[in-house]
Specification:
The chain is α+β, with helices and mostly antiparallel strands and 157 residues long. The protein has a single domain, classed as Ribosomal protein S6/Translation elongation factor EF1B (Alpha-Beta Plaits, 2-Layer Sandwich), CATH 3.30.70.60. It has helices at 14-19, 21-34, 73-83, 100-107, 110-118, 128-138, 143-154; strands spanning 4-13, 38-54, 57-69, 87-94. The protein has a four-stranded antiparallel beta sheet. The protein is globular, with a radius of gyration of 22 Å.
Length: 157
């Protein structure tokens, strides 16, 4: 059976996350892996005051995850989150397969996204016109028009 990609949003106990955020992150990762999933991205979204108390808590830490899992594993994960004291609420959404790559590239931590750019050799960026043409091609524009724009902006006015 094919595995689906899911978005998981957990509202965690803010006090326990503040004391040991790494431990809370490990608990979420372990729940997903125990249920047969493969964690793709996991990060703290934000910590905020809740609209109403949940299990006598007024603040919650929103933890956003993306993971790959067979559909039958979701019931086990759902049960684990209900039992776990750290998790106040949870929500799992199936991500459309056509959108998986775009969403994952968007939610990657900034350090990981910047690392491939830093590894590019310096010789690859020989001139500003080539960079502009490459950027324009990535955005779906005509590369020649972008190169002409770059040349006109480099010339003194």
């Amino acid at each position: 059976m094919a595995e689906n990609v899911y978005e998981g949003l957990f509202i965690l106990d803010a006090n326990r996350c503040a004391r040991d955020g790494a431990k809370a992150a490990r608990q979420v990762e372990q729940m997903i892996e125990t249920a047969g999933g493969q964690l793709l991205v996991s990060r703290l979204w934000e910590e905020r005051r809740l609209a109403y108390p949940i299990k006598r808590h007024r603040k919650g830490a929103y933890w956003l995850t993306y993971f790959r899992m067979p559909p039958k594993g979701l019931t086990g994960l759902n049960r684990q989150t209900q039992i776990n004291d750290l998790v106040l609420r949870h929500l799992f959404l199936k991500v459309d397969p056509r959108l998986v790559d775009a969403i994952l590239s968007h939610v990657q931590p900034q350090e990981e996204a910047a690392a491939p750019e830093a590894e590019q050799p310096a010789e690859a960026a020989e001139s500003g016109t080539e960079e502009a043409a490459t950027a324009a091609a990535d955005q779906g524009q005509d590369a020649e028009a972008a190169a002409a724009e770059a040349e006109s902006s480099e010339s003194p006015s």
